[in-house]
Amino acid sequence: xxxxxxxxxxxxxxxxxxxxxxxxxxxxxxxxxxxxxxxxxxxxxxxxxxxxxxxxxxxxxxxxxxxxxxxxxxxxxxxxxxxxxxxxxxxxxxxxxxxxxxxxxxxxxxxxxxxxxxxxxxxxxxxxxxxxxxxxxxxxxxxxxxxxxxxxxxxxxxxxxxxxxxxxxxxxxxxxxxxxxxxxxxxxxxxxxxxxxxxxxxxxxxxxxxxxxxxxxxxxxxxxxxxxxxxxxxxxxxxxxxxxxxxxxxxxxxxxxxxxxxxxxxxxxxxxxxxxxxxxxxxxxxxxxxxxxxxxxxxxxxxxxxxxxxx
Length: 311
What we know:
The protein is mainly alpha-helical. The protein is built from eight helices and three strands; from the N terminus they run αααααααββαβ. Strands 1-2-3 form a three-stranded mixed beta sheet, covered by helices on one side. Strand 2, helix 8 (284-291) and strand 3 (297-306) form a beta-alpha-beta unit. 42% of the residues are buried. The model is unreliable at 1-8 and 153-168 (pLDDT under 50).
């Protein structure tokens, strides 16, 4: 959500995502996922399936992650106008996504270790019952993904044509959505492992799919850690946005941008500090008006320095 200046001299720092519909969707999916998780874990233990048990554990991480997402939405909303947050609470959702990724990485490691141990044991697997539970889990995951996908469509907008600028990156919602999608994939792996093990007698396929699932989770966790970590460290800025700022200031003039800092303060909001060297007197407000056409820039500080070389 983009917040413009309220008056020429004051402005809001409420850059956090504010979509109550997405928050409700995540709440519904969290409840359904928690119930399915409990069923899969109990069934995996009862029927001896590591693939099914791993899928249940994976769903457990998603329940925790969606709990983090819900907390992030509510915390950001409650503290939106808190002056202690210098640039608002726009990064609370990013921090929630980062925390979810850490949980995923830990569970991936535990799943891999348990799956390796299962290679050296031969548990009795009740294939028919385990397959039924795995299919039911997959159906729940697909329905949950469809519910969240409906909210994801509200995050599109059009602007300057940059490939990354066509979407509002609500990392909090993205984390919840990708958790469910990843869970559907591990459900598919569990079903494949159980069916092949039943038909061909390859019991080792069950723990193998547990390892494959843990690898997928670890890879996804790394991607989310990388994306959110860059934003938290203020390094995730698209080069085209930097070029746009320089172009607006420098095109057709002798003005030059001497120092430029741009960082994210919300899902689609950026803050910028721009230092300009000019050989003719132009007030800071002049340059702020020039940059107002760049939609992503919600908070702009301009410093104008006089060029003394020709004095």
